[in-house]
Amino acid sequence: MLRLEAGRHPHDPDLIRLVGELSTQSELFRDRWASRDVVFHRSGLKRLHHPVVGDLDLNYQSMDLPSEPGLVLNVYTAPAGSPTADALQLLASWAATHDDEFAEPAPTAKHPQ
Fold this sequence. Notes:
Number of strands: 3
Strand order of the largest sheet: 1-2-3
Largest sheet: 3 strands, antiparallel
Number of domains: 2
Helix content: 40-55%
Shape: extended
C-alpha cells in the first residue's frame, strides 16, 4: 500500500520523508523498496498472520469510492469451508468472549451519604 501511495503521490514530502526514514532504519525495507516497481492490484490473495488464529489466506478486492476520491474500499473474504474461514469463525468466537476486556467500565452512580 505504501508503494501504491508513492506511485499516486510521488512528490508528497511526508511520504518521501517516511520512505527515507524507513530506508535508513531498516536494511530489509531498503532492499525490498529498491527491488520492485509500484504495481496496483485490484484483487488477489493476501496472507496475514493473526496472533490468536495464525495464518489467514484471504481473497481481496479493491474498489474506488467515487463519492470520496482517493479512498479505496478493500473487501477481504475466505472461501466457505476453508481453513481460513474456520479460523475466522474461531476468531469471532474468541473476540465475543473477550469483549469485556476492551469495553469501557460502566459509570458508577454516586450516592450522597
